[in-house]
Description:
Layout: E1 10-14, E2 20-23, E3 28-32, H1 41-75, H2 83-100
Antiparallel strand pairs: 1-2, 2-3
Helix pairs in contact: 1-2
Amino acid sequence: MSKHTKLPWKITDENRAGDIYIGNKDMHVLIVTPQLLGDSTGPANAEYIVRACNSHEDLLKACEKSWKLLQEVARMNIQPFPTMAVDLNNELRELIAKATG
């Protein structure tokens, strides 16, 4: 996987057409363009993209640590192993795979 533009990203600029620019201190990364004039979802979409990108690595690390902890707990052979822990283990594994491609 290739490297992405250095984080953190932020909303860097807007223009009169409603385009919202996202980037870091050095460059624009993408432009959020409204579908129609007067579309009010552009700012919310831009903020969502910025939050998701800026938190991705930290959330992934937390998921990986949680998954490893569950693996250690499973090795303790606690019987019965809580169904919620099994479900969480599977969910974390799936989320980590999705986040890492």
